[in-house]
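for the recovery benchmark. tokens below, seq after
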């Protein structure tokens, strides 16, 4: 493992491409190896043991590719097993959690809706995070499984269906002041969501924070690359590779 080794990034499917995109724009000289586990998607309905087994299989594969760090571009997988992975592998493992702290820092006394998978919202890790803030903020948990499914099915251009789905989750969010996108699949809906809510509503995700953290971790070990920039997609359902590239292109057009 050396400076020119790639960074491994994985998700239960295609949601993590939103994290990949952010890391690529923040660290354009890094080679990025993305693995989507679409064959086993969703993770949000699985048990801790099932998710951990998948994550170990993926990280074993990354180690065989000689990656220099692994980004778990999935809040659900992080909740399930980041500690297990950190103990098992000798490289940095960067996890994600819903960016509740970022939302709380916007203004005091807010109502904040956290959109995530059922698994993330039920895990102890999220309960601990929530209890740091729930004395001062009203925090609502909104599981949004359909938003994962529609990305995996390449249905983001079905505007009527997307609008109806987002409106359903907005109704459960009870006119929140901020919405935290606590699942990496949901970042693909950011623009559509912005068009459905008033401009005073803050929509927050953890992708930029994760990209910054990734840079800091590599810089601290003098592992930043200045000669790469390649992106390679892999997926446990190889037919999802074309959709992976399409999703990345769409995000890059939005920038
Ligand atoms: N993208 C994943 C996350 O950030 C979860 C999607 C799923 O597999 O349920 O939580």
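predicted aa per position
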């Amino acid at each position: 493992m050396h400076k020119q080794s790639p960074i491994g990034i994985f998700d239960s499917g295609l949601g993590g491409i939103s994290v990949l995109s952010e890391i690529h724009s923040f660290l354009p000289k890094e080679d990025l190896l993305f693995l989507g586990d679409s064959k086993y998607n969703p993770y949000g309905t699985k048990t801790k043991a099932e998710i951990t087994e998948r994550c170990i299989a993926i990280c074993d594969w990354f180690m065989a590719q000689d990656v220099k760090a692994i980004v778990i571009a999935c809040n659900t997988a992080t909740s399930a097993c980041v500690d297990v992975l950190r103990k098992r592998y000798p490289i940095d493992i960067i996890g994600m959690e819903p960016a509740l702290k970022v939302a709380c820092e916007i203004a005091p006394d807010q109502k904040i809706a956290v959109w995530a998978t059922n698994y993330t919202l039920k895990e102890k890790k999220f309960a601990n995070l929530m209890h740091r803030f729930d004395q001062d903020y009203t925090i609502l948990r909104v599981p949004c499984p359909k938003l994962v499914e529609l990305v995996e099915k390449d249905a983001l251009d079905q505007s009527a269906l997307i609008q109806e789905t987002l409106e359903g989750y907005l109704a459960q969010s009870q006119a929140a002041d901020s919405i935290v996108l606590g699942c990496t699949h949901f970042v693909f809906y950011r623009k559509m969501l912005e068009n459905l809510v008033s401009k005073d509503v803050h929509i927050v995700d953890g992708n930029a924070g994760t990209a910054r953290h990734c840079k800091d971790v590599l810089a601290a070990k003098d592992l930043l690359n200045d000669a790469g920039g390649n992106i390679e997609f892999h997926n446990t359902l190889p037919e999802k590779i074309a959709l992976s590239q399409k999703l990345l292109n769409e995000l890059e057009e939005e920038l």
